[in-house]
TrEMBL record:
This is ABC transporter permease. Belongs to the ABC-4 integral membrane protein family. InterPro entries: ABC3_permease_C, MacB_PCD, Macrolide_Exporter_MacB. It comes from the Bacteria. It is found in: Cell membrane. Residues 21-234 form the MacB-like periplasmic core domain.
């Protein structure tokens, strides 16, 4: 019953000094707002950027045969050469993956290729890639003109092509490339689409490429290795499920490739989310920095709260003397002032959390549309810190009040 009475007495005291309570609560609210606001902004910006990176392929991974990037030797020892991923193996993988995973198959058909129109020809620097119906979508390849391949063209391997911007401008200077014909690798292809201009990077250019249906690429005669090496790309909707889906893909591919138990994988899986991993690292540092800044702000707020509570003790010295004369113990006096400090902190904390969430989402909205985020973890942590600050800031004034002599307190003017 004493606890309930102390709580009610604390609330009455807070109501009786409303202006001081509001000003004290605002000190705490500003501290919590800075803490929750910074952390909310970091989480919201991370979510927005992750969504952007997902559209760029950050939620995908590639599967290729192992050892494609070495030349047979590594650190003085010969590396095992694994067979290429065949078309049948890739199709089996695509069929066995869950429906929520979007799988695309592609193959490098030819590099350093000369492409001709009726009147012009390119330098021998064009790359020919064959892809299935999901290839352009999984690789975020967009069309500037024309259309994508139809299902019939994919299934039948019709000789149609989508050309890069540089090829279109080189071969068809005064006319549209779409609807005309190009010749390469001994075959004639109809141009049905033109890619967006990308520009050059790392000595190469996506503008010097041609995409054809995968089935059409399989029909082109090849010199040397007669098997077309298929590259598999798997995209999922949620980037945070990437590790799980990669594990599932590893099991499926080991079964398809008949890798024996204990044998290393005859293929390699490469994630496409290096940007997301870098973002996670950067956001981690931002959260630590934001927490430190918010904690310093709260430290200043706790000092202000302690000072106000000390003033409150001095103003209510006679009240404390009366309560002790009526039988209140030192514990009850200490409890009353602690409850007042904690209640003030909680009220300020609620306001600070609300303002912090609004501020954080407002800052993040300046970068991109990421949706409205309520970081419940930081809300709970913020309110826990409020209670902690209330206890720390109120304990010394409460302890001082509980130790006052009742006779001296009654004489206090």
């Amino acid at each position: 019953m004493n606890l309930i009475e102390n709580i009610l007495e604390g609330l009455r005291s807070i109501h009786g000094n409303l202006l001081r309570t509001v000003l004290t609560g605002l000190i705490i609210a500003i501290g919590i707002m800075s803490l929750v606001g910074i952390l909310t902004a970091v989480d919201s910006m991370k979510y927005s950027l992750t969504q952007t990176f997902s559209n760029l392929g950050a939620n995908a991974f590639d599967i290729r045969r192992a050892g494609m990037n070495n030349r047979g030797r590594s650190e003085g020892r010969t590396e095992k050469i694994y067979p290429v991923i065949s078309y049948n193996q890739a199709v089996m993988y695509k069929e066995q993956m869950p429906d929520d995973a979007r799988v695309s198959l592609s193959a490098h058909v030819s590099g350093a290729t000369v492409v001709k129109s009726d009147t012009e020809k390119t330098n021998p620097n064009v790359n020919i890639t064959a892809g299935d119906e999901n290839y352009m979508l999984n690789n975020n390849i967009n069309l500037a003109k024309g259309r994508d391949f139809s299902t019939f063209e994919h299934e039948q391997g019709i000789n149609v092509a989508i050309v890069g911007d540089e090829i279109a401008t080189t071969l068809f200077k005064d006319r549209e490339a779409v609807g005309n014909f190009v010749t390469f690798l001994g075959r004639r292809f109809k141009v049905i689409g033109q890619l967006e201009k990308k520009g050059s990077s790392m000595g190469g250019s996506d503008d010097r490429r041609i995409i054809i249906p995968l089935e059409a690429g399989r029909q082109i005669p090849r010199t040397g290795d007669a098997t077309l090496n298929i590259t598999i790309k798997t995209a999922i909707h949620r980037a945070d499920e990437l590790n799980y889906v990669m594990g599932e893909a590893t099991g499926i591919m080991r079964k398809i490739r008949q890798d024996a138990l204990g044998q290393e994988d005859s293929f390699e899986i490469r994630r496409s989310d290096s940007l997301v991993q870098s973002l996670d690292e950067i956001s981690g540092y931002l959260k630590v920095g934001g927490f430190i800044i918010g904690f310093i702000t709260l430290l200043g707020a706790s000092v202000g709260l302690m000072n106000i509570m000390m003033v409150s003790v001095n103003e209510r010295t006679r009240e404390i003397g009366v309560r002790k004369a009526l039988g209140a113990t030192a514990f009850q006096i200490r409890q009353q002032f602690l409850i007042e400090a904690i209640v003030i902190c909680i009220l300020g904390g609620f306001v600070g959390v609300l303002l912090g969430v609004l501020m954080g989402n407002g800052i993040a909205s300046m970068i991109g549309e990421g949706g409205f985020i309520v970081p419940w973890l930081w809300v709970v942590i913020g309110m826990a810190i409020c209670v902690f600050v209330g206890v720390v800031s109120g304990y010394y004034p409460a302890s001082k009040a509980s130790k006052l002599d009742p006779i001296d307190s009654l004489r206090y003017e």
